[in-house]
Write a structure and sequence with these properties.
mainly alpha, two-stranded antiparallel sheet, 7% strand
Length: 621
């Protein structure tokens, strides 16, 4: 697959036909159709081939495959959407991706490679969809059911990719026809026109898609409705004059979001335990509306899902009693939670989502490096001597295999790292104890949502976890936000409380040990905490947008939405400056960073060249 757009967007269309041909041949190869391969020569294929059932199936495979780009290698969509926000910031190796956390001009500029790859990938997908739509519409070979299903999927896919692009780049070229000639005269369409096209595509697709697709990873009616609700909500959230907001947008958002809910006949339902969402044995569970698929079979996995690499604590494999393994993950160590996430976002005692979202403990897995009790000194001063009365015998193992080796706490001990007092305090623990003051770019609580213990070995980068793009928990919050923006706080509270009820510790559930050890709860308490986090309409009236954004943060933490959420609500700059210390200290973020720069590769190929202020976003020229 050619990964360069050497002569502008128009050249993409020609390469898509070649790529679809390759995908078609590949499909038959893995299906064992040797007779077809023996009798037919792909060089004889014409554009009309893509109006056949075999051709459209290959085109659909090709278009869906472009969804994988965001979870692939080279630090893609999670770095773009979860760095440079209020809830996460850079960890050790995340400092090499300053462009997305600190918004430094030396990195966040029109020549940034990953942004061009994003642009290129999505326009390839759109190009493929356009070609296929054009051919299906004029086909006389497809059955009516196949024609309608194919058009539903293709319009859904085109909308999906355009929605990604418009949120990041604003005004972009809008193409809905397959063009087989090289073109260099692409002009950016108004943002309002992009939203109109996305909504038109999704409204067209929704009734044509099946309630339950035959295969995983395929578009469904609920997926189209969920995405349509989110598009309407985005258009209505802020900057109404730019996005083309209409007075009916919130009503439309609520209509489509509610159509997905189980109380209105939707086919999905919430998992009863929030923690079960992240168990890889539960992939494709009842809550998942749409997920990009990956597999452990390298033949089908492309780059695989790399998200698991970025969220881990870089220091874990270097600690006593620890070694890198499959279960604990390969620690690229790029993203870590901010103070807001750890200290103020959650009611950590009563909202189980906090301790079900983070890995706070690592258990010893390396017998060779188990720590032993020993006398410790600092600058010639002995500050710790093992006490046999406490079982601290010189030279004896502090812990054994399977015992706690590292523990991250969000509680403060009141001491400064590196001081003698802190060293004395930590020396009394058997394991590596990390109070809040010790959290840094090397060591921090680890988000569990992307970890992948199914990889074949500890160094494998290509993961197999599905990338959940839509789930019912978010649908409830979309409906709640639409209701709250309309001033119907009673309905908003109703939908938020569906999510909150699942978020609470359930009756009979064994709570995390931190509940009584650190959060002030009673040991052995197995009562529900729902009444303690249930919201009322009055709770929502003071500052609803702040409330719902923080609720989305609690429910969807690290699920590759945050930058887009802050942008659509017009709070990106203010919230990053308030909650992201590294971004604030850099002093390089500006309000215009609510949009990414249009890739210079694209601009350089435009002929005739327009004025730079017409081709590039504000602040990047």
């Amino acid at each position: 697959r050619d990964r360069s757009v050497s002569r502008g967007l128009g050249d993409v269309y020609k390469r898509q036909v070649r790529y679809i041909s390759i995908m078609l041949i590949f499909t038959f190869m893995v299906s064992g159709c040797s007779d077809w391969l023996h009798e037919d020569d792909s060089s004889k294929l014409t554009y009309d081939f893509y109006s056949t059932e075999q051709g459209i199936d290959a085109a659909l495979v090709a278009t869906y495959s472009y969804m994988r780009w965001g979870a692939g290698n080279k630090a893609r969509y999670n770095m773009m959407t979860e760095m440079g926000v209020d809830l996460f910031t850079e960890a050790r190796d995340g400092k090499t991706r300053e462009s997305f956390n600190r918004y430094e001009s030396g990195f966040m500029n029109p020549s940034l490679k990953v942004l061009y790859e994003f642009w290129e990938n999505h326009y390839k997908a759109i190009s493929t969809a356009n070609i296929a739509i054009n051919q299906v519409e004029k086909s006389s070979e497809l059955s009516e059911s196949k024609r309608n299903l194919s058009l539903g999927e293709l319009h859904f896919l085109r909308a999906y990719f355009y929605f990604d692009l418009v949120q990041h780049f604003g005004k972009i070229p809008l193409e809905t026809e397959g063009n087989f000639e090289v073109r260099t005269d692409y002009k950016r369409a108004p943002v309002a026109d992009i939203y109109n096209q996305i909504i038109s595509d999704l409204r067209f697709a929704e009734p044509l898609l099946p309630t339950k697709p035959a295969n995983g990873g395929k578009a469904s009616r609920d997926a189209a409705a969920h995405l349509l609700a989110k598009v309407y909500l985005t258009r209505a959230s802020a900057e109404t004059d730019i996005r083309g907001m209409k007075p009916t947008d919130l009503d439309s958002c609520l209509y489509y979001a509610e159509s997905v809910l189980p109380e209105n006949g939707g086919t999905h339902k919430l998992m009863s335990n929030y923690a079960d969402l992240w168990d890889m044995k539960n992939q494709g569970n009842s809550e998942v509306i749409y997920a990009v698929q990956f597999t452990n079979n390298p033949l089908y996995n492309d780059d695989g899902n790399w998200f698991h690499l970025y969220w881990n604590a870089a220091m874990y494999e270097l600690q006593p009693g620890m070694i890198r393994d499959i279960a604990n993950g390969r620690p690229y160590g790029m993203i870590r939670p901010t103070d807001k996430t750890l200290l103020t976002l959650f009611d950590r005692k009563n909202d189980s989502r906090f301790y079900k979202s983070f890995k706070m403990v690592f258990y010893a897995n390396n017998k060779k490096t188990l720590s032993k009790w020993e006398t410790l000194s600092y600058d010639g001063e002995v500050y710790f001597t093992p006490d046999p009365a406490k079982g601290q015998k010189e030279g004896k193992n502090k812990i054994e295999l399977g015992d706690t080796a590292i523990y991250f706490s969000v509680q403060k001990c009141g001491l400064q790292p590196g001081t003698l007092e802190m060293k004395k305090y930590l020396a009394n623990f058997k394991y590596v104890y990390m109070p809040y003051e010790m959290h840094d770019i090397e060591g921090h609580p680890v988000l569990v949502k992307h970890l992948d213990p199914t990889r074949p070995d500890k160094n494998t980068q290509a993961g197999a976890r599905e990338w959940i793009r839509m789930r019912l928990g978010e649908t409830y919050l979309i409906a709640a936000e639409a209701a709250g923006r309309k001033g119907d706080y009673e309905l908003a509270a109703k939908y938020i409380n569906v999510v909150r009820k699942r978020a609470a510790w359930a009756t009979g559930e064994v709570k995390a040990p931190q509940y009584w050890k650190e959060e002030g709860g009673e040991m052995g308490n197995m009562e529900s905490t729902y009444d303690l986090i249930k919201v009322t309409p009055d709770d929502l009236k003071t500052d609803f947008i702040t409330f719902i954004l923080d609720e989305r943060g609690r429910e969807l933490l690290g699920e590759i939405y945050r930058w887009e959420d802050l942008v659509r609500c017009g709070v990106l700059y203010d919230w990053v400056m308030k909650f992201n210390k590294e971004a604030k200290a850099a002093g390089t973020m500006k309000p215009f960073h609510k949009l990414r720069p249009i890739p210079q590769n694209h601009i350089d190929r435009l002929k005739p060249a327009g004025k730079i202020e017409e081709e590039q976003n504000e602040g990047y020229y």
